[in-house]
Amino acid sequence: VQLVESGGGSVQAGNSLRLSCAVPRSNFDINAMAWYRQAPGQQRELVASITWGGTTNYADSVKGRFTISRDITKNTVYLQMNNLKFEDTAVYYCHADISVVTIEGKTDFAYWGQGTQVTVSS
Questions:
Q1: What angle do CA 63, 1, 79 make, to 5 degrees?
Q2: Contacts of 71 (CB under 8 A, 6+ apart)
Protein backbone atom coordinates (compact mmCIF):
# COMPACT_ATOMS: atom_id res chain seq x y z
CA VAL A 1 0.00 0.00 0.00
CA GLN A 2 1.53 3.32 -1.06
CA LEU A 3 0.28 6.43 0.67
CA VAL A 4 0.00 9.48 -1.58
CA GLU A 5 0.87 12.75 0.14
CA SER A 6 0.46 16.27 -1.17
CA GLY A 7 0.25 19.85 -0.02
CA GLY A 8 3.65 20.76 1.38
CA GLY A 9 5.42 23.97 0.49
CA SER A 10 7.06 27.16 1.71
CA VAL A 11 5.10 29.89 3.46
CA GLN A 12 5.71 32.82 5.74
CA ALA A 13 4.90 32.61 9.40
CA GLY A 14 1.24 33.19 10.14
CA ASN A 15 0.06 31.63 6.92
CA SER A 16 -1.67 28.30 6.29
CA LEU A 17 -1.12 25.04 4.45
CA ARG A 18 -3.20 21.92 4.04
CA LEU A 19 -1.68 18.48 3.69
CA SER A 20 -3.50 15.52 2.18
CA CYS A 21 -2.77 11.81 2.32
CA ALA A 22 -4.73 9.26 0.34
CA VAL A 23 -4.76 5.49 0.79
CA PRO A 24 -5.46 3.72 -2.49
CA ARG A 25 -8.60 1.62 -2.20
CA SER A 26 -8.08 -2.05 -1.59
CA ASN A 27 -9.44 -4.91 0.48
CA PHE A 28 -8.58 -3.62 3.95
CA ASP A 29 -9.92 -1.57 6.87
CA ILE A 30 -8.33 1.67 7.99
CA ASN A 31 -8.16 1.86 11.78
CA ALA A 32 -6.45 5.22 12.13
CA MET A 33 -4.24 7.68 10.32
CA ALA A 34 -1.81 10.24 11.59
CA TRP A 35 0.67 12.91 10.67
CA TYR A 36 4.20 12.90 12.05
CA ARG A 37 6.99 15.37 11.42
CA GLN A 38 10.74 15.32 11.59
CA ALA A 39 12.90 18.42 11.71
CA PRO A 40 16.63 18.28 10.89
CA GLY A 41 18.54 16.68 13.74
CA GLN A 42 15.32 15.86 15.60
CA GLN A 43 13.37 12.68 16.20
CA ARG A 44 10.16 12.03 14.35
CA GLU A 45 7.22 13.19 16.45
CA LEU A 46 3.48 12.74 16.34
CA VAL A 47 1.63 15.85 15.21
CA ALA A 48 -1.97 14.63 15.09
CA SER A 49 -3.91 11.42 14.72
CA ILE A 50 -7.48 10.44 13.93
CA THR A 51 -9.28 7.15 14.24
CA TRP A 52 -11.59 6.20 11.43
CA GLY A 53 -14.38 6.67 13.95
CA GLY A 54 -13.32 10.32 14.23
CA THR A 55 -11.44 10.55 17.52
CA THR A 56 -8.57 13.01 17.26
CA ASN A 57 -5.39 13.62 19.20
CA TYR A 58 -2.90 16.50 18.90
CA ALA A 59 0.56 17.36 20.06
CA ASP A 60 0.46 20.23 22.55
CA SER A 61 2.57 22.36 20.23
CA VAL A 62 -0.11 22.39 17.51
CA LYS A 63 -3.33 22.42 19.51
CA GLY A 64 -5.57 25.26 18.42
CA ARG A 65 -3.64 25.77 15.17
CA PHE A 66 -3.80 22.42 13.34
CA THR A 67 -6.87 20.36 12.53
CA ILE A 68 -6.83 16.76 11.36
CA SER A 69 -9.83 15.37 9.50
CA ARG A 70 -10.69 12.45 7.27
CA ASP A 71 -12.92 11.70 4.31
CA ILE A 72 -14.02 8.11 4.65
CA THR A 73 -15.39 7.99 1.11
CA LYS A 74 -11.98 8.95 -0.29
CA ASN A 75 -9.76 7.10 2.21
CA THR A 76 -8.04 10.43 2.73
CA VAL A 77 -6.76 12.30 5.76
CA TYR A 78 -6.09 16.02 5.85
CA LEU A 79 -4.03 18.26 8.08
CA GLN A 80 -5.09 21.90 8.04
CA MET A 81 -2.24 23.97 9.45
CA ASN A 82 -3.05 27.55 10.40
CA ASN A 83 -0.91 30.25 11.96
CA LEU A 84 2.24 28.40 11.00
CA LYS A 85 5.39 29.10 12.97
CA PHE A 86 9.05 28.79 12.08
CA GLU A 87 9.31 25.81 14.43
CA ASP A 88 6.73 23.93 12.36
CA THR A 89 9.36 23.56 9.64
CA ALA A 90 9.90 19.85 9.06
CA VAL A 91 9.23 16.95 6.75
CA TYR A 92 5.71 15.77 7.42
CA TYR A 93 4.92 12.07 7.10
CA CYS A 94 1.55 10.41 6.79
CA HIS A 95 1.00 7.16 8.68
CA ALA A 96 -1.79 4.61 8.23
CA ASP A 97 -2.82 1.83 10.58
CA ILE A 98 -4.59 -0.79 8.47
CA SER A 99 -6.12 -4.20 9.10
CA VAL A 100 -6.62 -6.98 6.60
CA VAL A 101 -9.22 -9.55 7.50
CA THR A 102 -9.14 -13.01 5.94
CA ILE A 103 -10.69 -16.34 6.86
CA GLU A 104 -7.48 -16.97 8.79
CA GLY A 105 -7.90 -13.92 10.97
CA LYS A 106 -6.94 -10.25 11.18
CA THR A 107 -3.50 -8.87 10.46
CA ASP A 108 -2.46 -5.29 11.21
CA PHE A 109 -0.12 -3.29 9.01
CA ALA A 110 1.47 0.13 9.32
CA TYR A 111 2.42 2.23 6.33
CA TRP A 112 4.30 5.50 5.90
CA GLY A 113 4.09 8.12 3.21
CA GLN A 114 7.18 9.41 1.44
CA GLY A 115 7.14 12.71 3.34
CA THR A 116 6.39 16.24 2.25
CA GLN A 117 8.47 19.29 3.14
CA VAL A 118 6.90 22.18 5.02
CA THR A 119 9.08 25.26 5.35
CA VAL A 120 7.98 28.28 7.36
CA SER A 121 10.01 31.46 7.14
CA SER A 122 9.89 33.97 9.96
A1: 20
A2: 77, 78
Q: Quick check: 46 and 36 in contact, CB under 8 A?
A: yes
Q: 36, 92 in Cβ contact below 8 A?
A: yes
- Give the β-pairing of 56-58 and 45-51: antiparallel
Counting runs of H as helices and runs of E as strands, what totals does the chain give?
0, 11
SS3 23: coil
Q: What are phi and psi of 64, to 5 degrees?
A: 85, -10
pLDDT reported for residue 27: 77
pLDDT in tens, 28-78: 899 999 999 999 999 999 999 999 999 999 999 999 999 999 999 999 999
